[in-house]
Specification:
Layout lengths: L1 H34 L7 E6 L7 H6 L2 E4 L4 E3 H4 L9 H12 L5 E5 L7 H8 L12 H15 L16 E4 L2 E2 L15 H20 L4 E3 L2 E2 L1 H10 L10 E2 L2 E2 L2 H5 L2 H16 L7 E6 L3 H17 L6 E7 L23 H18 L3 E3 L13 H4 L11 H13 L4 E4 L6 E8 L2 E8 L3 E3 L9 E6 L16 E4 L3 E3 L4 E5 L1
Parallel strand pairs: 1-2, 1-13, 3-4, 4-5, 5-7, 6-8, 11-12, 12-13
Antiparallel strand pairs: 9-10, 14-15, 15-16, 16-21, 17-20, 18-19, 18-21
Helix pairs in contact: 6-7, 7-10, 8-11, 11-12, 12-14
């Protein structure tokens, strides 16, 4: 009799353990959403780069208001032969984005089997460097005019079901990644950049002839290449700023490189000579370190000032830390010299990159929701989205919703200097104030000079999930305002 009783007892005990475990996991998720759910606006300052049908409602409810690089419009696909248009795929994406009350962005790629046949062959083979100045610029302008007429929402020849004008027009996604190199450029005579500026001019004129209030977005500059320029020009002081393809270059080595001098000549030419033909600067911020993000933003602001203008900055591509997993030895993207990717740092970057960028003057910032597992863009590109390639929530996913809970619809943001190696930001949201802070190391600081309260509440981000991908939350704590502990992990701070 004893043995069956013991077996029954063990079964009941194990069942209880399983039940309690499941209950606690469900409670974690329920408590999180109860704590960090509020009414939000579709805030266009927060974006995703594209929609994925399965997650579109999740994206729509997050507070995001902008889709930064969709639909992608490949000229030769929409106009396979001169004057013959097939808008079906573009229409479908515009309708889906607008059905969620989000703002689309045309990413226009000038490559065509009949207008740029020399580069279209590369496109058909799935290669980069496929866009170029066409052999018939009037054909290109006619295509853009027809497209503008279809999506301008003026009631004439509009797409059926169009809910609002599509005003964001991105002329080439990234430089030099997608531009065709004819081999005739030099640092002294940047012919490739000249062709792009000529294309930009023709594009802007054609689009604005039909849609005067369209926003023309400049090509984004490749993140790692712009980092090298910012490093050489002294806007990044970290010596890792010179890392490129497994080698850590000094400033002198880069300046002596013809390839680098060509890159810098191209970027400078586009920013200076193209300034009358775009409304928005696109900055790509896939970064391994936060100091790279800050240095690149400060560089582009300074460069615009040096050329006598200032224009809004939109971050069409972003995410970090742009590092590989320690086990990854085959990916093309990422560099082991930067160290390795962790989910904790990933969550930290969601806060740091958004908050720092807005404080420096960036107008819009996007973060990818999910990546395709077998994508050409490997390594870090698969890691930095908020969901894993199989759709599982990461700590960064939950942290993003905390960010939206506190910052969605924010009125203004400013950084306040407290002491070296401490970042402290004051954010105004709907008549209330929230603070964000972190440091380069564990420190205890006195914030009494900045927060008029004897005590403050510390709200922690999510840096871990359990085995079922539910958030492991750290309880809020109340501390004396002159004894606030900071670390590399950002915290939100509320006056009480």
């Amino acid at each position: 009799m004893r043995k069956p009783f013991l077996i029954l007892l063990i079964v009941l005990l194990l069942s209880t353990i399983v039940f309690v475990s499941i209950f606690l996991r469900c409670l974690r998720s329920k408590n999180f959403w109860h704590r960090f759910t509020r009414d939000k606006i579709k805030d266009v300052r927060f974006g995703v780069n594209h929609l994925v049908e399965e997650y579109s409602n999740n994206i729509s409810s997050s507070g995001v208001g902008w889709v930064s690089m969709s639909p992608v419009v490949v000229w030769g696909i929409v106009e396979p032969s001169r004057g013959v248009y097939n808008w079906k795929s573009v229409d479908a994406i515009v309708k889906k984005i607008q059905s969620l009350d989000l703002e689309p962005t045309f990413t226009i790629m000038p490559v065509s089997p009949w207008a740029t046949p020399w580069s279209f062959s590369r496109y058909k083979r799935g290669l980069l460097g496929v866009c170029d100045y066409p052999n018939d610029i009037e054909a290109w302008k006619n295509f853009l005019k027809a497209m503008a007429e279809r999506y301008d929402y003026d009631g004439i020849d509009d797409m059926e079901g169009l809910k609002a004008p599509v005003k964001n027009w991105h002329i080439l996604e990234e430089w030099p990644t997608f531009w065709y190199d004819r081999g005739d450029s030099s640092p002294e005579n940047p012919e490739n950049a000249k062709r792009y500026v000529n294309l930009l001019k023709a594009s802007s004129e054609a689009i604005k002839e039909v849609m005067p209030d369209a926003k023309i977005i400049l090509c984004g500059f490749a993140s790692d290449k712009l980092r090298l320029i910012a490093y050489v020009d002294g806007f990044i002081n970290d010596p890792d700023g010179g890392i490129f393809h497994g080698i850590n270059y000094t400033r002198e080595q880069l300046e002596n490189s013809r390839e680098f001098r060509q890159l810098k000549a191209d970027v400078n030419y586009i920013l200076e000579k193209g300034r009358d033909y775009f409304d928005i600067v696109d900055l790509h911020l896939q970064d391994a370190k936060i100091c790279f993000t800050e240095g690149k933003i400060r560089w582009i602001l300074d460069k615009m000032r040096s050329f006598g203008y200032s224009k809004p900055i939109w971050v069409v591509e972003a995410g970090g830390p742009f590092k590989r997993l320690i086990s990854d030895t085959t990916s093309r993207a990422g560099d082991s010299l930067f160290g390795y990717f962790t989910r904790k740092e990933h969550a930290e970057f969601v806060i740091k990159m958004h908050v720092l960028s807005y404080a420096l003057g960036v107008e819009r910032f996007q973060w990818n929701w999910i990546a395709k597992e077998n994508s050409f863009w490997d390594g870090p590109f698969l890691l930095i989205p908020l969901l894993t390639t199989s759709g599982k929530p990461t700590p960064a996913y939950y942290t993003y919703f905390i960010l939206q809970y506190y910052m969605n619809g924010f009125d203004s943001i400013e950084e306040i200097y407290v002491k070296d190696n401490v970042r402290f930001f004051k954010i105004y949201v709907g008549g209330k104030v929230i603070y964000v802070a972190w440091s380069n190391a564990e420190v205890t600081i006195d914030l009494s000079a900045f927060i008029d309260s004897s005590n403050v509440k510390i709200i922690h981000i999510v840096t871990r999930v359990d085995s079922k991908n539910n958030p492991i939350m750290v309880k809020d704590n109340i501390v004396n305002v002159n004894k606030v502990k900071l670390s590399t992990t950002p915290v939100f701070i509320e006056k009480i």
